[in-house]
Amino acid sequence: MSISFYNTMSRKVEEFKPVRDGEVRMYCCGPTVYDYFHIGNARSFMMSDVIRRYFEYRGYKVTYVMNITDIDDKIIRRAQEEDMSSEAVAERYTAAFLEDSARFGIRPADIHPRATQTIDDIIALIQGLIDAGAAYVIDGDVYFRINAYEAYGKLSRKNIADLEVGARVEADTRKEHPVDFALWKNAKPGEPTWDAPWGKGRPGWHVECSAMAMKYLGQTFDIHAGGNDLIFPHHENEIAQSEALTHQPFANYWMHFGFLNIDNEKMSKSLGNFFTTREILGKYAAEVIRFYYLQTHYRGPLNFTQEGLDAAKTGLRKLQTLHETLLDVPSGQTAVDVAEYERRFVEAMDDDFNTSAAFAVLFDLAREINTSIQKGGGLETASRDAARSFLEQSAVDVFGIIRTGGTPVADNTLLDGVMQLLIDIRAEARAEKQWALSDRIRDGLRELGISLEDTRDGTKWKTGE
Ligand code: AMP
Ligand code: ZN
Q1: 335-389, pLDDT tens digit by residue?
Q2: Of 36, 81, 209, 260, which has the most beta carbons under 10 Å away?
Q3: CA within 13 Å, CB half, 439
Q4: Cis before residue 233, ω within 30 degrees of 0?
Q5: DSSP one-letter code for 164
Q6: What gap in Å lies between CA 37 and CA 276, rounded to an integer?
Q7: Of all helices (H) and strands (E), which one includes residue 388?
Q8: Is the beta carbon of 231 within 6 A of some atom in ligand 1?
Q9: What is the spatial distance between Cα 292 and Cα 138, in angstroms, rounded to a whole number?
C-alpha cells in the first residue's frame, strides 16, 4: 500500500512515487519575517510538518526545507516605520517565527535557508536565465520573459492571453510583455542591496524560492507545498523560472493548504479579527489548537471559532486520558487487536492524509480499551504495549497532540507566555545592541533557576539548573 494525495498540478489524487526510492524531498514556502506569524500561517506550517512526520512514520527518509524570506518590500516598509534596519526587523521576526513554531509543536525544517544567505545562488539562477534568453535587464531591473516558457500557467490553469488583459491595467511600459515579472529589483536609496553583474539591487520574492529549493533539493524534487494563495502567481512563477533554466520538472507534486477564516470571514487586521499564533498560544495549549486544526481536512477551508476550539479541548481530553490510562492500566487477560487499528490509521492517512478519519480510529481504540477495563479486566501486557506504542507514534509523533514527559499541557500556557515575552524582549535588546538589558534578563532568570540557551532554532528555556 502506498500514500496517495492530491496533486494541484493534475487536480487529482495520485499515488506518491518519489524521485529516489524511500526518500521524500519536500519544500514548503516559509514566512516573510516582517511580523509575528498569524494563526492562518500556523495552519499551513503545521500541516506541512505533520505531512512530513507522516512520511517519516511510513519509513521514508525526509529532507524538509522551509525558506525564510528575510528581504522583501514588507520588511523594508516595517523597518522604515520603526526606524530600524531591515536586518534587525528580519532578525527579530525570524527568532519569533522559530520560537512560536517550536511552542506550537512545529518541528524545525532540516534546513531553513534565508534569502539573504542565498544571494549567490539567486544571482547564478538569474544569470542563467539571462544567458538562456529567458530574462532581460532594463535599467538595472531584471524581468522574466514570459514568452520564453511556453507552459506558463500549467499549475493555476491560467493562460497568458487572459492574464495579459488584467496585467495591462498596471503595466510597466518598460516591460516587453505585461505579464513579465521581476527577478531582480534595481537598488533604491536606503534599501539593502547586493552586487550583481547587471548592477546593485535585491532579488524578487519568486526567484528566492526557486533558488533555495533547487540548492538544497536538486533540480527535480518530490513535493512543493504552501497555502492556496500561493498557487498563482508565486508557484506558477517558481515553475517558470526553474523549468526555463533546467528543462526538467521542478517539483513532481504540488500540495496546497486551505485557508483559515474566522467566524466565516477572511481574517484581516482591518476587520479586527486577526490573531497571531503567540496570542492564541497564550490562551490555549498548542495541542488543543493542533487537534482542532487537524479535525479539518488540509485542503478544505477551516472556520476558526471559539466554540470549535473549546469543543476540541473536550475531544482531545479523551485521547489524553487514553494515553494516561495506558501508562498505568493493570495487567490482565483482555487482548486488543492493535494491529487492526494501526492498519486503519494508515489506510486513512494514506488516503490524502485524512486526519479526521485517523482520529476516528484513535477514538475507537479508546472506546474498546475503556470498555474492556470497565468490564473489570486489565489489558494483556502485549496489547497494552502495542497500544501505547501506537498512540505514541500517531498522536504524539505524527500529530503532536499529546505531550509526553512534560508538564501537563493545559496548565503550562501562562508560564510559557511570560517566558516567551522575556525571550522576545531580550532578542529585541540584542538586535538593538542593548547588552546591559539583555544580560539583565538572562542573569535575572538564572537567579530564579531558569536558564536560556540560544540555539539555531531560537532561544529555549529550561528550569532546574
Ligand atoms: P506569508 O508570510 O503571507 O507569505 O504566508 C506564509 C504561509 O502561510 C504561506 O504558505 C501562505 O499561503 C500561508 N497562509 C497565509 N494566510 C493564510 C491563512 N489565512 N490560512 C492558511 N494559510 C495561510
Ligand atoms: Zn515560495
Answers
A1: 999 999 999 999 999 999 999 999 999 999 999 999 988 887 789 999 999 999 9
A2: 209
A3: 4
A4: yes
A5: H
A6: 6
A7: helix 381-391
A8: no
A9: 50
CB atoms closer than 10 angstroms to residue 51: 26
Q: How many helices (H) and strands (E) does the chain have?
A: 15, 17
Q: Residue 28 Cα, ligand 2 centroid: separation in angstroms?
A: 7
Which pLDDT belongs to residue 462? 76
Residues in the chain, overall count: 465
Closest C-alpha to ligand 1, atom 19: 40
Ligand 1 centroid to 455 CA: how many Å?
Answer: 26
Read out DSSP for 248-301?
Answer: S-SEEEEEEEPPEEETTEE--TTTT---BHHHHHTTS-HHHHHHHHHTS-TTS-
Taking only the tens place, the pLDDT of each residue in 153-196 is 999 999 998 898 888 766 677 899 999 999 999 999 989 999 99
* Strand 23-28 versus strand 221-227 pairing type: parallel
The C-alpha atoms of residue 15 and residue 13 are separated, in whole angstroms, by 7
Give Cα 317 to chain centroid, integer Å. 26
Q: What's the gap in Å between 31 CA and the centre of ligand 1?
A: 8
In terms of Cα–Cα distance, which of 290, 293, 308, 309 is closest to 395? Answer: 290
Q: Which residue has the least CA distance to atom 11 on ligand 1?
A: 227
Q: Is 159:219 a contact under the CB 8 Å cutoff?
A: no
Collapse the DSSP code of 123 into the 3-class scheme (helix H, G, I; strand E, B; otherwise coil) and give the result.
Answer: helix
Give 3-state DSSP helix, strand, coil % of the chain, rounded to 5: 50, 20, 30
**Mean pLDDT of all residues in 23-32:** 98
CA distance 279 to 76: 25
Task: Say yes or no: CB of residue 43 within 6 Å of ligand 1.
Answer: yes
Count of other CB atoms within 10 angstroms of residue 377: 14
Q: Residue 397: CA atoms inside 13 Å, Cβ hemisphere, count?
A: 14
In the predicted structure, residue 411 carries a pLDDT above the cut 60: no
217: enclosing H helix or E strand: helix 205-217
pLDDT band at residue 288 under the 50/70/90 scheme: very high
Higher pLDDT, 1 or 434: 434
Scanning 83-147, the segments in alpha helix (DSSP H) are 86-103, 119-131
Tell me whether residue 190 is exposed, middle or buried, using C-beta atoms within 10 angstroms of its C-beta: 0 to 12, 13 to 18, 19 or more: exposed
| pLDDT of 122 | 98
DSSP H or E run through 25:
strand 23-28
Nearest in space to 242 (alpha carbons), one of 265, 211, 268, 272 = 211
What is the residue-averaged pLDDT of the chain?
93
Our mutation pick for probing the ligand 1 site, out of 8, 46, 229, counting the most ligand atoms within 8 A of Cβ, is 229
**27, 32, 41, best to mutate for ligand 1 pocket (most atoms within 8 Å of CB):** 41
Question: How much distance in Å is there from the Cα of 181 to the middle of ligand 2?
Answer: 15
